[in-house]
Amino acid sequence: MPGEMPKAAEEAAVKQQEAAAAAKEAKAExxxxxxxxxxxxxxEKPKAKPEEKPxxxxxxxxxxxxxxxxxxSKRAAYARTILKEFVGKHLKAxxxxxxxxxxxxxxSRGLHKPPARIRVLAKKYASGEVMAEVxx
Length: 136
Hints:
By secondary structure, the chain is of the alpha+beta class. Helices cover 46% and strands 19% of the residues.
């Protein structure tokens, strides 16, 4: 009959469908496992420990004028780099973290016009990590 498939071809099509379903299932399981791992990572990621008291605390006025020497499309990102280097140099640390509020302040006027200078409260912890926040 013209509409019927040979038995071997039919079996091959069924096997192919089963393989596709199994692959889809495996992909879904892998995605689930990845999401769980990511959730655990977010939970375990240590932030600046509030119970840990800073060893040193300084209020710095960081000049960011050099950021205007960078191309327009990289100014705010370069301002972050300048800020991290400045704080690291003055507190003798290589691991400098910026608070979300400080990052928002740098980016507040957009990519092209970061502030020319910014007041920063830098806190150095015993672990050697420095956390920089907006200084008021």
